[in-house]
Amino acid sequence: NKAEVNNSFLSPPPVFRVLGLLAALLLPASSCPPSCFCSSDSLVVDCGGRGLSSLPPMHLLPPGSRSLLLANNKLALLGASAFANLSSLEELDLSNNYLDNLPAGLFRDMSNLTRLTLHNNSLTVMDRDLFQVGGLQSLDLSLNGLSTVPIGLLDELQSLRWLSLAGNRLHGLERAAFEPLANLQHLELGHNPWECDCNLRDFKHWMEWLLYRGGKVDAVECTLPKDLRGRDIRGVPVEMFNYCLQLEDENGGGGEGARSGQGGGPPCSRSALNPSGATPAPSDCVRARYRPVSVRRAIGTVVIAGVVCGIVCIMMVAAAAYGCIYASLMAKYQRELKKRQPLMGDGEADGEDREEKQISSVA
C-alpha cells in the first residue's frame, strides 16, 4: 500500500546503514594516533613502550591534549618541525629512547610546556637554541652523554625550578651558563666525573649562592685531583682555590673580569676545545688548569700550621702546669714557715730568761 511504499522510500538501504555504522566507529578512533592510548578526557596521549622508531602522526592528537608520553621506544631522530602546532601540551616525555641529536628550536612552538623529560638517551651535545621554552619548570637531562653545558643553552629558562644533569660525563661547568636560572630550586649533579680544579671554582661559588637562597644540590664528588678524590666540592675550603688567582695573574689574566671569563680571554676548559680536540692557543684563553703540586703544597701548609699550633698549645699547657706546681710548692713552703715561727719565738724567750737569771746571781 501507499504507507509501505513511503516507509521503504524513507528508510536508507542496508548498505548505507552499514557505512554509517563504520563511520561512527572510525570517527572516535581517528581522534587518537595509532599505537597510542588516549584517555577518556583526551588530555593524556600515551604512546610509550610501543617500539616506535618514528613519531606517530601528530596531527591526530586530540585537540587540547596536555600530556604526550613517548617513553620506552626506539626514537633516534626527530625533525625540526616534529612538535609544531602543539601549543596545548604541558608535558612531553621522551625518556628511554635513542635520541642523539635534537635540532635547534625543536620545542619552540610548545609555548605551554612546563615539564620535559629526556632521561636516558644518547645526547652528547646540545644546540644553544634548543630550549626556547620560557615557561618550562622541570627539565630532566640525566643519564645521557653530555660532557658540557654550553653557555646560552639555559638562557630562556628563567622559570625553571627543577633540573637534573646526573649521570653524564661532565668534568666541569661554566657559571655563566647557569646564572639565568633565577628561580631554580633543585639541581641534581651526581654521578659525573668532576674535576675539582680552577675550572670548577666559579661554579662552586654559584652553587653556594643557590644553597644560600634555599636551593638544593646533591653531592658533587671529585674524581680529580687525587688529593680530593671522593670529597664533595661543597665541603672543600675556598682557600684550596687561591692558587687559581695566582695562575691567572701569571698568565696575564689579572682582574675580576678575566677571572669571571669576561674581558681578556675565556678560561681554558673542555668547552673551549675545537672538534678536533686541540687546545686553544695561550692567547685565546686563560690557562688555569689544576696543578697537583700546588694543591699538595696547600695541604702541606695546612698540616704544618696544624703541627705548629699543636706544639704551641702543648707548650702553653706545660707552662700552665709548671705555674700551678710552683704555686702549690710556694704555698706549702709558706705554711711550714708559719708553723716554725712560734717555736723559734719560744726559744728566744727562754734564752732571755736564762741571761736575766745569770745577771741576778752575779749581782
UniProtKB/TrEMBL annotation:
Topology of this chain in the membrane: Single-pass membrane protein
Keywords carried by this UniProt record: Cell membrane, Disulfide bond, Ion channel, Ion transport, Leucine-rich repeat, Membrane, Repeat, Signal, Transmembrane, Transmembrane helix, Transport
InterPro entries: Cys-rich_flank_reg_C, Leu-rich_rpt, Leu-rich_rpt_typical-subtyp, LRR_dom_sf, LRR_TM_domain-containing
SMART domains on file: LRR_TYP, LRRCT
Highest taxon, organism lineage: Eukaryota
Gene3D superfamilies: Ribonuclease Inhibitor
Presence of keyword Cell wall biogenesis/degradation: no
GO cellular component: plasma membrane
Annotated signal sequence range: 1-31
Composition bias, Basic and acidic residues: 354-363
Chain segments annotated as transmembrane: 298-331
Biological classification of the source: Eukaryota, Metazoa, Chordata, Craniata, Vertebrata
Extent of Gly residues compositional bias: 254-266
Region ranges (Disordered): 254-282, 343-363
SUPFAM superfamilies linked: L domain-like (SSF52058)
A biological process from GO: potassium ion transmembrane transport
Domain LRRCT residue range list: 192-245
Predominant localisation class: membrane
Compartments in which it is found: Cell membrane
Organism: Kryptolebias marmoratus
Record-given protein name: Leucine-rich repeats and transmembrane domains 2a
Key word ATP-binding present: no
